[in-house]
Amino acid sequence: MPTIQTSGANPTELYYYEQGQGKPVVLIHGWPLSHRMWESQITALAEAGYRVIAYDRRGFGQSGRPTGGYDYDSFAADLNELITQLDLREVALAGFSMGGGEVARYIGRYGTERVSKAMLLGAVPPFLLKTDDNPEGVDKSVFDGMLEGVRKNRIAFLQGFFPGFYNLDKNAEQGQDLLAFSKWQAWAASPLATEQCITAFGTTDFRADLKKFDVPTLVAHGDADQIVPLEVSGQRSHAMIPGSRLEVVKGAPHGFAATHAQQLNALMLDFLKS
Fold first, then answer.
1. Burial (0-12, 13-18, 19+ Cβ within 10 Å), 90
2. Is the pTM value of this prediction over 0.70?
3. Which positions are catalytic?
4. Would you state the pLDDT for residue 223?
5. CA dihedral 92, 35, 79, 64 (to 10 degrees)
6. How far apart are the C-alpha atoms of 201 and 227, rounded to whole Å?
7. Where does the AB hydrolase-1 domain lie (predicted)?
8. What is the per-residue pLDDT for 173?
9. Are 87 and 186 in contact (CB under 8 A)?
10. How far apart are alpha carbons 268 and 116 in whole angstroms?
């Protein structure tokens, strides 16, 4: 099983899956999923001639479950360990939802010496939490409610969470396999990681990180995203990153890597080849 060992205050093992040959593309999954959410993208990118590396965030998938380090400085350090230990250069970083925060914080802390391009896909930057200097954000009560739900009954919370992730009717026959696949990924995650990541993506300010972006950047977002609304995140990130490319996927929910896979794959490949 391919893994790397991280260092620092809360060291752990990170599992990664690799497919294809060519320029490297690192895929960073969203909460509360694992690298398996990228199934369609891995196949499409590898067949197009890229070396695709999709890893599990600490606490999720097949990675280790330490008792700490569920903050973006640690997540960015983990990504840095992956990039340096695999000696990746001219890498394209693609982060979905929470994973977009890793892309932002990595560039903010470590720069772009090894990075050729960046992709923020349905991503949480620049700053989700509503504050005095961020009035466009989301009320803290939303994240408090998520924390309460996970602490009270994580499995029941996930049952109610995923239909809105994909804009599916939980009682309709269509989409039940996708809901089951997503719950299977989320069930396997560390309960502690599931809980603490809510605080991480709900309260971390990436505005200073976005100012350090100096590589071509794709911002792709669904205009029907109920989890991380376009106007709160994607549109604002695009405005903050000079020269970035904004692609709005019409009718797409938050989980558009699955529901609109062909459209997203085409956007990613077009951006990588440009």
1. exposed
2. yes
3. 97, 225, 254
4. 98
5. -170
6. 12
7. 23-256
8. 82
9. no
10. 14
CATH topology of domain 3-273: Rossmann fold (3.40.50)
**pLDDT computed for residue 22 by the predictor:** 98
Residue type, 246: L
Sequential DSSP letters for the chain? --EEE--SSS--EEEEEEE--SEEEEEE--TT--GGGGHHHHHHHHHTTEEEEEEPPTTSTTS---SS--SHHHHHHHHHHHHHHTT--SEEEEEETHHHHHHHHHHHHH-STTEEEEEEES---S--B-BTTBTTSB-HHHHHHHHHHHHHHHHHHHHHHHHHHHT--TTSSTTHHHHHHHHHHHHTS-HHHHHHHHHHHHH---HHHHTT--S-EEEEEETT-SSS-TTTTHHHHHHHSTT-EEEEETT--TTHHHHTHHHHHHHHHHHHH-
Helix 98-110 to helix 72-85 angle (10° resolution) is 70
As given in the structure block, the two tokens for residue 131 are: 């504050």
> pLDDT of 216-251, one tens digit each?
999 999 999 999 999 999 999 999 999 999 999 999
pLDDT tens digit string along 22-61? Answer: 999 999 999 999 999 999 999 999 999 999 999 999 999 9
- Reported as a single tens digit per residue, the pLDDT across 135-162 is 999 999 999 999 999 999 999 999 999 9
pLDDT at 107: 98
Residue in this structure with the two tokens 């369609």, named with its chain if needed = 40
Domain limits, the chain: 3-273
Closest listed residue to residue 87, CA positions, set 17, 15, 4, 20:
4
18, 1 contact by CB (below 8 A): no
Are 244 and 218 spatial neighbours (Cβ–Cβ below 8 Å)? yes
